[in-house]
Design goal:
By secondary structure, the protein is an alpha+beta fold. It is built from four helices and four strands; from the N terminus they run H-H-H-H-E-E-E-E.
Length: about 120
């Protein structure tokens, strides 16, 4: 490999790595009170999207009880089983990106009042 190509690979690697580290360390940490405070205001303040990613990454919801989720997240935006089988949907805000036309939701699926799946979906 030539020195020029090696330098290019190193520069791209540092750029990508730096972005990943920045995204991890500068993301918004989940805060239950702040989450509940912005409910219904997702268009003006899409902070829930960052908090949901932090919650799923750092703490996780799988295995938690429905009562625990209710206490932590408050009332869901929608609480009925949709076509994908998720019972709770919490609106996070508009989908990120240049042409985001859908909304992001934190979707939670329960079995026997325990979370069996939690992820971000788009509608």
């Amino acid at each position: 490999m030539t020195r020029r190509r090696l330098a290019m690979v190193a520069a791209v690697s540092l750029l990508v790595g730096g972005c990943l580290v920045a995204a991890f360390f500068f993301s918004v940490r989940f805060d239950s009170a702040a989450w509940k405070e912005v409910a219904g205001k997702e268009l003006e303040n899409p902070v829930r999207a960052h908090m949901a990613r932090d919650l799923l990454w750092r703490q996780g919801l799988v295995g938690k009880s429905r009562a625990w989720v209710d206490e932590l997240l408050g009332e869901p935006t929608r609480a009925d089983r949709n076509r994908r089988g998720f019972e709770y949907l919490y609106r996070l805000g508009p989908e990120g990106g240049l042409f985001g036309m859908d909304y992001e939701y934190l979707a939670i699926k329960f079995e026997r009042d325990k979370v069996v799946e939690a992820r971000i979906v788009y509608f």
